[in-house]
Amino acid sequence: xxxxxxxxxxxxxxxxxxxxxxxxxxxxxxxxxxxxxxxxxxxxxxxxxxxxxxxxxxxxxxxxxxxxxxxxxxxxxxxxxxxxxxxxxxxxxxxxxxxxxxxxxx
Length: 106
Hints:
By secondary structure, the protein is mainly β. It contains no helices and nine strands.
């Protein structure tokens, strides 16, 4: 389900954790940008992949391990990480966490 538009919403309440799952909700998707909210249960993984655009990840709450290339980063609530276009990255839930992903295309 896409997010409601033209009203103020609490970001972290727009997606909820589910046991043993990664839950996602698309906020915006067009030829220029994709914005997606995620809720990861502990130990869940977003396998290594890459995008044609730069990726901005904002950890809303909780803690994730974001591996960019061969470099592992521990990213906690309130922190960001930017991944260049065409760079492999993976996300692992060190604990349950919520994340906003923004992919910006050319």
